[in-house]
Amino acid sequence: MSRKGGAVSRPIKRAEWQIVFATRDAEKGWTDLLATARDATVDAWDTLTREPTVETRRLYQLKGDYAYGTYNGQNYARYQYKVTDGGRIWFFVDPAQKGAKIAGRVLLERCEPGHPKETE
After folding, report:
1. Does 2 score more than 60 pLDDT?
2. Is 104 exposed, middle or buried (0-12, 13-18, 19+ CB in 10 A)?
3. Which DSSP state fits 25?
4. Residue 1's pLDDT is what?
């Protein structure tokens, strides 16, 4: 039970995706993104909870050596969301098993307030 005056966490619908940190660096980067581009980061949250694999000019699968990555021994397609002109979120999509109470998980691998050097 939360204490009086505590913030209420946003619940997710069954059709939405749960966002989780895959790395400590992603968690720190998320905090940095919120500090530098709060509204754009909230827009990213909305997109990633609803349609994490629907490609747009801001959201797409990375190419070449960065197109796939590994998390907990499983290979995943690696996606990128452009939070700002420089800020990026790299993530994997892990669909839920049939009958789950969510659509799946979005695994945040990297959150960068600046453009990742690897893809410049």
Report:
1. no
2. middle
3. H
4. 53
DSSP helix, strand, coil percent of the chain (3-state; round to 5): 25, 30, 40
Tokens of residue 108, six digits: 């945040």
What's the CA gap between 107 and 88, in Å, rounded? Answer: 14
Place of tokens 């993104």: 33
Give 21-60 pLDDT, tens digit per residue: 999 999 999 999 999 999 999 999 999 999 999 999 999 9
Residue 8 tokens read as: 């209420």
The rounded distance, in Å, linking the Cα atoms of 24 and 31 is 11
- Cα 95 from Cα 102, distance rounded (Å): 9
Which pLDDT value is given to residue 4? 79
